[in-house]
Every structure is written in C-alpha cells, then in structure tokens.
Amino acid sequence: MKPIIKIALFVVFFVALGGILAALIMFNKKHVDTSKAKPDYVLTATALQKEFEENEKEASARYIKKIIEVSGDIASITPADSNNLNISLKTGNELSSVICTFPASGEALKLKPGDEVTLRGECSGFLMDVLLNNCATVGKRK
Fold it and tell me: What is the 3-state secondary structure (H, E, C) of 71-118?
C-alpha cells in the first residue's frame, strides 16, 4: 500500500475515534442539579417574559443557558413527553407564559394551578413562551 494511503487511513481512523469519544462524552453528560445550583438571575415570570417580548436578541444573550429562578402563579400543568411535566406560569399576557419542564416525580406532582411558586431552571429560549428546562421547585405559597 502506498504511504499516502496509509497516512490518510491513519488520519481518518483517529478522526472517527475522536468523534465517537466526543459523542459518548456528550451522551453521558450529567444535567446540572438546578435545585442546588446558584441562580444567575432571580426575577418574576412577568418580568422575564416582558424582557424577551421587548428585546428578544438582548434577552437571549443574557438568559439562554443560564440558571434562572423565577416566581409566579401556576396557570396550568400538562404532561409533556415521556415522564415530564410542563408547568406554565402566568405573565399577564394571554398569548405568552413561562413554561418550566420538570421530571414527572417529586415536588412537581404536589403543585396545582393557582399555587404561587418559585422555580429554578435553565433557560433555553423564547418561542412565544419563555422555556426553562431541567427545573426544580424552590418554594411554594398558597
């Protein structure tokens, strides 16, 4: 076999091996425990939604991939994909809310519409609603 082909096969092998290792690391990466994480920002659901509505680009740069602690009244609780719940917080805007995704277990099952809660999660963006993932309950008032 020609030396150039051997070198090319060697390079392709190591690039493929590196890709496989990177995929395994990303697949096994643990989520941040938001119940114990220090929030980057603390605000109300209304204030968070309003910031995204007024200037989405600036709010996205500030909040996406950050841990946010948000408080407000629960508008609805709906099942999401496998073993998850979506809890929507009222924002004063009929068309938009803050949606927090929870595992369908633990504290999330004790909540009901109308409860005033403080939730913590990782912001993933704005699509008519502000989306928080990997959420945890921080506090609850009736």
Answer: EEEEEEEEECCCCEEEEEECCCCCCCCEEEEEECCHHHHHCCCCCEEE
Does residue 40 contact residue 68 with C-beta atoms inside 8 Å?
Answer: yes
Q: Are 138 and 132 in contact (CB under 8 A)?
A: no
Give dist(CA 79, CA 48) in Å, integer. 23
* pTM for this entry: 0.74
Residues 79-101 have pLDDT tens digits of 877 788 888 999 888 888 999 88
Structure tokens at 57: 């680009």
Are 60 and 93 in contact by the 8 Å Cβ rule? The answer is no
Pairwise CA distance, residues 39 & 24, whole Å: 28
